Amino acid sequence: MGIAPVIPSRGRPTRCRPPAFDREAYRRRNAVERCVGRLKDSRRLATRYEKLAVNFLAVAHVAVITVYLRKLFG
Questions:
Q1: pLDDT at 17
Q2: DSSP letters of the chain?
């Protein structure tokens, strides 16, 4: 698909072989994965219980609002 890997290699970096990954892209990917993980705490969203896209989007909005309010007042 033309997507470059973002995760670092498994080997330990040395002076002559620095870690070969894009640190900024890795941080952005990590932030997205954590956000999706928090949204999946909502069981309806994780199991895709809703059949219609409109209803699924409404459940996703409720999940986002819930995560935001927990973070704000948490």
A1: 59
A2: --PPP-SPPSSPP-SSS---S-HHHHHHHHHHHHHHHHHTTSHHHHHT---SHHHHHHHHHHHHHHHHHHHHH-
